[in-house]
Amino acid sequence: ERRYRSADERTVDGRTAGVVSGDATEEAARRRTFAVISHPDAGKSTLTEALALHAQAITSAGAVHGKAGRRGVSSDWMEMEQARGISVTSAVLQFAHREQVLNLLDTPGHADFSEDTYRVLAAVDCAVMLVDAAKGLEEQTRKLFDVCRHRGVPVITFINKWDRPGRDALELLDEIESEFRLKPTPVTWPVGIAGHMRGLVDVRDPERMLRYTRAPGGAKEALEETLGAGQAAAEHAGDWQQAGDELALLRETGAVHDPEAFLAGKSTPVFFGAALSNIGVRLLLDAVVDMAPAPGPRPLADGGGERPVEAPFSGLVFKVQANMDRSHRDRIAFVRVCSGVFERGMTVTRAATGKPFATKYAHSVFGQDRSSVETAYPGDVVGLVNAGALRVGDTLYAERKAVFPPMPTFAPEHFSVVRPVDIGRTKQFRRGIAQLDEEGVVQVLVSDRRGEQAPVLAAVGPMQFDVVRHRMENEFTAPVRLESLPYQTARATDLQGAELLNRSRLVHGEAMHRVRDGVWLGLFPSRWHISSFEREFPDSPLETLIAAH
Ligand code: G4P
User: Fold this and answer.
1) Closest by alpha carbon to 186, among 283, 274, 104?
2) Which annotated residues bind GTP (predicted)?
3) Rg (CA), the chain
4) Among 154, 242, 266, 484, which is 20 to 30 Å from 144 by CA?
5) ∠ CA(391), CA(29), CA(363), 5° rounding?
6) pLDDT score of 538 more than 50
7) What integer pLDDT is reported at residue 59 of this predicted model?
8) Is residue 65 within 6 Å of ligand 1 at its C-beta?
9) Is ligand 1 within 6 A of the CB of residue 275?
10) Does ligand 1 lie within 6 Å of residue 268's CB atom?
């Protein structure tokens, strides 16, 4: 029994991962911190479970949010609240594979697509892009990929559901190349078209075929066996021949994994498989270990150079989760360790204020489990409880000061005017909205025209509004009414652009400014309105937002 639950009992291949007051450099080199990005239904939960089962799960795989548990629940957040009065969305799954410690950060998908989803990508070193073989690239995959590109996060591609009818493999590669300007370099290649999968070839070992067959007794996991080229040709003539021809073509076009191009975000190693039957999952796991970068030095704000992993402790708060339960108003701040060794109980400094923060209540957060963490290394994530003072984007450090660049804010796509239900609670209303803005739950926009009584809330995903509604009522005792506005997209602009937009008598859209950073945003009903505004006022700049500062 190699599974273990609490971080201080961890044993990884006979070595102790959690308690050695190890060398940060050595431990960092053993870490791989990554996220899976995908469109809902591509199989993220299935893959996560398969990965965790494959590896030595450091937490029980049951802690992964399975589909059954998710159904009919608007978010993990609400689910957690119902279940036990604490809330954890961005769970981290830690597991070991071949001497390495893998941290898989959950990117909440589905209805709970929100700024949090994007922020997780600030805390990883690599992303696995999961693509449904029948659907190809989909909307949320595109958005998440944009963020990876923007942040320089290298991407490994896994084409899933090859056991079901789907698109042509080469066509899927073409789509990745033309849409993302990203060169796909297959590392495994399917034998048999989608829905008629016979096996996989590892392109590094092309004289062998990994054959998969349905396991007897209805087990989900397929049986794997290795065939030599002769046997593969004899038993799977047409499919083996076709795979060989396609691989030859790929070699000719130079579609070969190139570590440098991959790390520079110019190419993506591609894997095929079926998460549901555990096909191709081990090879993907190997790739995360062999190809994904270990935590490295992180750039500091304002040209302050870099913080190397061996420097004293520093960490980045990438998510703050408020407790939904009124009687337990703690907040959990999720901190990615960037340098040094984190030890529970150590006092760290919050860079924004220079004030100390005690880390007596540090937890590793695995799925729905919380257990105390004693020690964490670069790449690991710790959850700090009682973190009311911490904000998304905060840097924490020990000894030597570090300040990481601010967390980017993302282009909102949903806009609602918010008003207090009870005018008598205006004070609480204002305080609540200000706090939610500060925490990064939503972006708050104001304009002279609408006045301060009716700020506009801007969000990346509609679930952010549910959170506002719930917390305003329960935490700030100021229930709110939200009225959605017919805008779907925003661009950053300057004062002049904002004035032109507002003077166009709302023909094109409306300009407001964001309270958090003072940036002017033009809100538009559609991309068509943006083009029309740009045609009419070619001199007033509109900037695409991912990171608007
Ligand atoms: P998500 O987290 O990305 O939203 O996807 P999830 O894992 O929940 O998978 C979505 C559906 O796709 C599930 O089916 C799942 O069983 C199926 N699926 C995932 N990977 C594979 C695969 O490799 N092959 C095949 N054939 N199916 C796969 P569902 O019908 O929505 O749910 P369920 O009733 O099977 O649980």
Assistant:
1) 283
2) 106-110
3) 24
4) 484
5) 40
6) yes
7) 40
8) no
9) yes
10) no
Determine the atom of ligand 1 nearest the C-alpha atom of 46. Answer: 7
Tally of CA atoms within 13 A in the half-sphere of 91 that contains its CB: 25
Is 14 marked as binding a ligand? no
> Rounded distance, CA 255 to CA 267, Å?
9
The CB density around residue 23, as the number of other CB atoms within 10 Å, is 13
When the pLDDT of each residue in the chain is averaged and rounded to a whole number, the result is 83
For 178, phi then psi, to 5°, come to: -80, -35
- State yes or no: ipTM above 0.85: yes
CA of 220 to the centre of ligand 1 (A): 12
CA atoms within 13 A on the CB side of 221: 10
Helix, strand, or coil here: 395?
Answer: strand
Is residue 282 within 8 Å of residue 274, measured between CB atoms? no
Sequence-ordered alpha helix ranges (H) in 4-132:
24-29, 44-54, 67-70, 76-84, 115-120
Is this model's pTM higher than 0.95 or not?
no
Residue in the block written with tokens 């579609």:
255
For residue 46, report the distance from its CA to the centre of ligand 1, in Å: 6
How many C-beta neighbours within 10 Å does residue 299 have?
A: 12
Q: Are 284 and 51 in contact (CB under 8 A)?
A: yes
At position 402, the amino acid (one-letter code) is A
Atom of ligand 1 nearest to the CA of 70: 8
Tokens of 10: 């961890």
The predicted pLDDT at position 117 comes to 81
Q: 67-76 contacts: CB < 8 A, separation 24 or more?
A: 70/45, 70/110, 74/111, 74/112, 74/463, 74/466, 75/108, 75/111, 75/112, 75/463, 75/466, 76/108, 76/112
E strand or H helix at 247:
helix 237-252
Q: State in Å: Cα 45 to ligand 1 middle.
A: 8
d(Cα 104, Cα 44) in Å, to the nearest integer? Answer: 12
Cβ pair 546, 525 in contact under 8 A:
no
How many other CB atoms are there within 10 angstroms of residue 129's CB atom?
Answer: 24
Determine which residue's CA is closest to atom 32 belonging to ligand 1: 67
